[in-house]
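Supplementary Methods, section 5.1.

A reviewer requested that the exact input to the structure prediction be made available. We therefore reproduce it here, unchanged from the version used in the analyses.
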Amino acid sequence: MNRHLFPVLCTALLVACAPMPNSEPTPDTAPYASPDSIEPATEFAADGAAELAQCTPHRLFDLGLTAEPLPANCAGREGRMAFELGRQIHTLREEQEALGEADPQPARDARLRVIERELAQLEGLARIQGLLAADPGRD
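The structure derived from this sequence is encoded token-by-token as follows.
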């Protein structure tokens, strides 16, 4: 390519891609829209903040712990994991309560021991993550 044509082509390309000052705003030129045409986003920001508060790991853990459904708009990995942890703890506590009311049997007693061990591990994990308050009965 000719050395003398390169600067001319670069300049022509820059001029062709620059927005025209009197043109109507389009999606391509949205950053150049006038400040008068921009609507305030306070309503959207309030809705977004409320939505974010609903999707915190603590809130989702509590939803799982109480067997409530996961909100559809909460798609974050950390929040989903907290929700699942709460749901697993809830399920094991329900099973433990149901088995505690049944007649003593070797299989039931073995299952209760497994549930107690799993609950202790899951509750410990929730405490480490700050999702569950410390057990006052333990040191």
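DSSP finds five helices and no strands in the chain. These observations are discussed further in the main text.
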